[in-house]
Structures are given as structure tokens and as C-alpha cells.
């Protein structure tokens, strides 16, 4: 690693950090922002395109009404003002992933502005001021061939325009100051809040690892007591909560080292590298880019009526923070238990749905955060991408509570459900996993184990009840785990008393 780093606490002793977070959210509308092309993920490259999203001469865009509705709902949920009149602009630049050489966006007339969110981090509340939420379109996707998938060293690049024209909302904060040493944690908490909010609104899948939501993280430092903002860097397209926190912390340490060595921070874009958890230099931004914005001549202004805005306000869901607090109280979980849930993406919704399907909160948490999270990690998928539903998890727990299966056997049931063998009860029947309820069969197994272990049996007769564990284990093994250990213990002690 070529960049020197200063100890984080040393940087905080001498400098104040200033953050600026620009978050792009890809909407889940059925069609693109300006045309009727599908937005189905995973389609063959360049099969979801048309003259409009390819920027062919003579094609004309039409605004996606659902995207405008989603933008307004996002703005309202972020406590923004909603413009009575706004319009689109052409942002002119050349990149190979934007076929028409300009992007339709919004410049100085965004649809939402002057908002804020309040976040609680380690018992302290921080207010993040939102400058704007504006509508634009996404670019295509470049795939670099050779060079380990990076543009540096690649032999050539391929362009997939399926993503070009996808509805994109950009949420831009004002400079965030006064965070002290909690800046990285607050940045992560803000992204987590936005992710949960987008999902609650139903406007985006907000899966950062799939690019539905990504963050450009701006950082600068200024000496303690100074009021002049320092030179900032912008780490582009950070796509996980952990990486947002890591990129902010790394840049604070890197910039601190530069300043302490008497150098100057270079204004530039940087790239986050997951492999070694560092940022690397990208493109210099010493000179402000001139995008030559001008009003988009092919689109009429957007003027949402106040009546419509209020109708949309009435559709807003329960704020994520209030929902978490309500669920924590209803479930009786500690703050530490809730943090475990927040640390597993999508777990809160899955646990809530499992409880609604008839499971206890403790059991739902146990299965989703434990067994099922392990299986998701092994499969390399998100928790909510496992081929099992909350209702099925609740059904497994009900089988456990009915003593049809044990916790250990439940793991086999999950395996069967995930393998597509049917509903939990069907898996139990097909695999023969139901526990033995016949006391006669259990009694025979207990007798056999006692006869095979006379020394241990005598110890139990002599009052050393703790020795029963070894015999219970042998009975359970003989019954292939399909016995109630408590009932086995009762039978064993009855016979040896």
C-alpha cells in the first residue's frame, strides 16, 4: 500500500472531518425512465433497449410517471420540500456507457430539496441535512476484458446498454460536520437508514451489492478550530454498508497523514478496493467540470399538484426507526440482540414476517440469524434470496414445539425445503424425520444401553445422576436423534431408581 496512514485517534485530535454523501438509488419501476423498455435484471446484454435509451436520432423521451411518484415519496420520507415546478436538464459529457453523449438529469431545479434525517448512533442523535433529491437516468454497464476485470490493463471493454435509461434518484447531503470520531459510523448508519427506507417505501430493492443503491463518499479535513473547509476527495460507487464505513475511515487516516507530512490533499475521485480495504487514486478533479447544463428541450416541466403530494404523503410507511423501536419492545429483545439483527441484511423483515406467520420472535431470530444465515453465507447469496419463506420457517418451528422433530432434526428439514423437496411437513415425512413417540420402542432402546453399560448404570444407581448424560447420548444415537431427550432421561432414571 503506497498511501501512508495516520492513527485514527491522532487525526481526530488534530482535525475535524466533513462528509458529503451522494447516494444513487435505482428504482424498481417496470419500465425505464424515458421509454417502455423492460427493467428485468439479468437479461441478455443489449436485449432491453430501444431508439430512446440508445439515443438514436429522432427518438423522443417521455417521463415515467411512476418514477416521479417514487421521487416525491422519497422526498417526503426525507422531510423534503416538494417543488411546485421543476424541469429536466441535459448534462453533457462523453462516456462510452452513455450512447447519446449526455445524461438527462436535473440541475438547479430538483424535484425535492431542503430535507433532513435524524440518526441515533451509540445513544447520540445526529441530524443529516439533505440538500436535494433529483431524478435522472442511469448509464450502461462496462465489462472490461482482461486486466482482472479492471480498466487498467484490460484488452478491451464491452458495453451493455440494458441499464441505460433506468430511473435513478440521487440523494445529496449538505456538508456534514460535528460528527467527531463517529463520522464513519454515522456514514454507515445513514446508508443503513436509506436502505431500510427505500425498502419500506417499496421504491427500490436497495441491494447495495447488486448496485441498486451506491454511495459516492466525499471526505475532507480541517484543522481544529478552523471554519474553512478542506480539500475533499470523492470515493466512487461504494456498494456495502461496511465499505462505506471503511472508505470514510481510511480516507480520514490517509488525508491526516498527508496534512501532517506538510502535503496537500489532491482533489480527485478515488476507488474503494475490497481486496485490501483501501482507496486508490482515480481521476483528478482539480478543475471543476463544465457539464454545460441546459434545459432538456424534449421534456415538459414537472408540476406536481399540492393535492397529489398530500395524497402521496398519506401512503408513507411507518418510519424505519420507529418500526425498529416498536418491534424491539414487542419482541422483548435487548439492544445487543437488535444489533445482531441489523447486522444481517434483510433479517428484520424476515423475522417480522415469521412472527406474523405464528412463530415466537426468539425462535424466528434463532433460525434466521443462525442456521439460515450460515446457509446463505455458504451459498453466497443474501438472506432474503434463500428459497425458503417466513411461513415455512414458522412451520418448522411449530413442528419443533409439537415435538414432531427436534432442533437438530429441524436443520435437516431446512435442508430439504431449500433443496425443493416440499413443505416442512412433507420433508419430515419423506425423510422419515418424525420423532419416535412410542414409549415401548424408547424403553427397548434404554434397556439395551443399560445392559451394554453396566458400570455407568451402577454409578447412576449409586446416586451419580450426572452420569446419565452418557447413556442418554447413546440412546439418542441408537434412535438416530428421533427421540425426546427429556423423555429418554425420565425412562432411564425410572429404570435405575
UniProtKB/TrEMBL annotation:
Give the protein's recorded name: Aspartyl/glutamyl-tRNA(Asn/Gln) amidotransferase subunit B
UniProt lists compositionally biased (Basic and acidic residues) regions at 266-276
> What family is reported?
Belongs to the GatB/GatE family. GatB subfamily.
User: What is one Pfam family matched by this protein?
Assistant: GatB_Yqey
GO aspect biological process, one term: glutaminyl-tRNAGln biosynthesis via transamidation
Database matches in NCBIfam families? gatB, PRK05477.1-2, PRK05477.1-3, PRK05477.1-4
**Provenance organism:** Luteococcus japonicus LSP_Lj1
| EC numbers | 6.3.5.-
Gene name tied to this protein? gatB
What SMART domains would the database entry show? GatB_Yqey
Q: What keywords would UniProt list here?
A: ATP-binding, Ligase, Nucleotide-binding, Protein biosynthesis, Transferase
Question: What does it catalyze?
Answer: L-glutamyl-tRNA(Gln) + L-glutamine + ATP + H2O = L-glutaminyl-tRNA(Gln) + L-glutamate + ADP + phosphate + H(+); L-aspartyl-tRNA(Asn) + L-glutamine + ATP + H2O = L-asparaginyl-tRNA(Asn) + L-glutamate + ADP + phosphate + 2 H(+)
- Spans annotated as Disordered: 266-291
Amino acid at each position: 500500500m503506497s498511501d501512508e496512514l495516520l492513527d485514527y485517534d491522532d487525526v481526530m485530535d488534530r482535525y475535524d472531518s466533513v462528509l458529503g454523501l451522494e447516494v444513487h438509488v435505482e428504482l424498481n419501476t417496470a419500465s425505464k425512465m424515458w421509454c417502455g423498455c423492460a427493467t428485468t435484471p439479468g437479461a441478455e446484454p443489449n436485449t432491453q433497449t430501444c431508439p430512446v435509451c440508445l439515443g438514436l436520432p429522432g427518438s423522443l423521451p417521455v417521463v415515467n410517471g411512476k418514477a416521479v411518484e417514487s421521487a416525491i415519496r422519497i422526498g417526503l420520507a426525507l422531510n423534503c420540500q416538494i417543488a411546485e415546478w421543476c424541469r429536466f436538464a441535459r448534462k453533457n459529457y462523453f462516456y462510452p456507457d452513455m450512447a447519446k453523449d449526455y445524461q438527462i438529469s436535473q440541475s438547479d431545479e430538483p424535484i425535492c430539496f431542503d430535507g433532513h434525517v435524524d440518526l441515533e448512533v451509540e445513544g447520540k442523535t445526529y441530524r443529516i441535512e439533505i440538500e436535494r433529491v433529483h431524478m435522472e437516468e442511469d448509464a450502461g454497464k462496462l465489462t472490461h476484458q482482461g486486466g482482472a476485470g479492471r480498466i487498467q490493463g484490460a484488452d478491451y471493454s464491452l458495453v451493455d446498454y440494458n441499464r441505460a435509461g433506468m430511473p435513478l434518484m440521487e440523494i445529496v447531503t449538505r456538508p456534514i460536520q460535528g460528527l467527531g470520531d463517529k463520522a464513519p459510523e454515522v456514514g454507515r448508519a445513514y446508508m443503513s437508514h436509506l436502505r431500510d427506507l427505500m425498502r419500506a417505501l417499496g421504491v427500490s430493492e436497495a441491494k447495495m451489492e447488486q448496485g441498486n443503491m451506491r454511495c459516492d463518499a466525499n471526505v475532507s479535513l480541517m484543522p481544529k478550530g478552523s471554519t474553512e473547509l478542506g480539500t475533499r476527495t470523492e470515493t466512487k460507487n461504494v456498494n456495502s454498508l461496511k465499505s462505506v464505513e471503511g472508505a470514510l475511515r481510511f480516507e480520514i487516516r490517509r488525508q491526516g497523514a498527508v496534512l501532517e507530512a506538510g502535503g496537500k490533499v489532491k482533489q480527485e475521485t478515488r476507488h474503494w478496493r475490497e481486496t485490501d480495504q483501501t482507496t486508490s487514486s482515480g481521476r483528478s478533479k482539480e478543475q471543476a467540470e463544465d457539464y454545460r447544463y441546459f434545459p432538456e428541450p424534449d421534456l415538459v416541466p414537472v408540476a406536481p399538484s399540492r393535492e397529489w403530494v398530500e395524497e402521496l404523503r398519506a401512503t408513507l410507511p411507518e418510519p424505519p426507526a420507529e418500526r425498529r423501536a416498536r418491534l424491539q419492545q414487542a419482541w422483548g429483545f435487548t439492544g445487543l440482540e437488535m444489533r445482531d439483527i441489523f447486522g444481517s441484511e434483510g433479517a428484520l423483515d424476515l423475522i417480522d414476517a415469521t412472527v406474523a406467520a405464528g412463530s415466537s420472535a426468539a425462535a424466528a431470530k434463532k433460525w434466521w440469524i443462525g442456521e439460515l444465515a450460515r446457509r446463505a453465507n455458504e451459498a453466497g447469496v443474501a438472506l432474503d434470496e434463500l428459497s425458503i419463506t417466513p411461513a415455512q420457517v414458522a412451520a418448522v418451528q411449530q413442528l419443533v414445539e409439537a415435538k414432531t422433530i427436534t432442533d437438530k432434526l429441524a436443520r435437516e428439514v431446512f435442508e430439504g425445503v431449500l433443496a425443493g423437496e416440499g413443505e416442512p411437513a412433507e420433508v419430515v415425512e419423506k425423510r422419515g424425520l418424525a420423532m419416535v413417540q412410542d414409549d415401548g420402542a424408547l424403553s427397548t432402546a434404554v434397556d439395551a444401553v443399560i445392559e451394554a453399560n453396566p458400570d455407568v448404570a451402577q454409578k447412576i444407581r449409586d446416586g451419580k445422576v450426572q452420569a446419565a448424560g452418557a447413556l442418554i447420548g447413546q440412546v439418542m444415537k441408537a434412535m438416530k436423534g428421533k427421540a425426546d431427550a427429556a423423555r429418554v432421561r425420565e425412562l432411564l432414571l425410572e429404570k435405575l431408581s
